[in-house]
Amino acid sequence: MRISWRLLEVGPLAPPPRGAHAACCVNDKFIVIHGGIGLYGSRLGDTWLLDLSNGLRSGSWHQIGYTWPLPPPRSAVLALGGKVLVYGGEDSQRRRKDDFWILDTPALLQYESGSKKMSKRMWKKLRIDGQCPNYRSFHGACVDTSGCCVYIFGGMVDGLVHPAEALGLRFDGQLYQVELVLHL
């Protein structure tokens, strides 16, 4: 196996610098980035689409317009059968979240290609049935090949996110399976 790095040409428009965000590839030609932590610790709630359909050597960023409803600023994003799923994370007051949101990427790609006539919302908050894990941030998540189960591992579940107060931090080592039944 050989690894090589290459800086992509993406033009002057790009997302602002950030960390603690996540990105996922959709349809092998697009990268979606949502949320994260910006400069000076601000939480970001923006969504960006990188179009790599030009042979994967160059691309162009497009900021996705805000359509209501949309998830509050956070991290933890994964691809799910052509859709983007957001779970957990922290808001700008550092409160952890436990909600699920889904981004309809086919509608997003249609919107970005110039058709402003959308019959449905791009973001949708999902209803959760049954018991769910504690609110969490900085966790890992992945989806199985069937697209029916999401696995969520670890993360910060209690306390403050402040290095000087390490006693208030609690990292979780549990693995959760979330079964998805999507009616979009």
Give me the side-by-side strand order of the main sheet.
Answer: 1-2-3-4
Report the CATH superfamily. Answer: Kelch-type beta propeller
How much is the radius of gyration in Å? Answer: 17 Å
User: Class by helix and strand content?
Assistant: mainly beta
* Main pleated sheet: 4 strands, antiparallel
How many structural domains can be distinguished in the coordinates? 1
* Amino- and carboxy-terminal Cα gap: 40 Å
Q: Predict the CATH topology.
A: Neuraminidase
Mean pLDDT: 79
DSSP, total strands: 13
Q: What is the molecular shape?
A: globular
Organism: Panicum miliaceum (Proso millet)
InterPro entries: Kelch-typ_b-propeller
Protein name: F-box/kelch-repeat protein
Pfam families: Kelch_KLHDC2_KLHL20_DRC7 (PF24681)
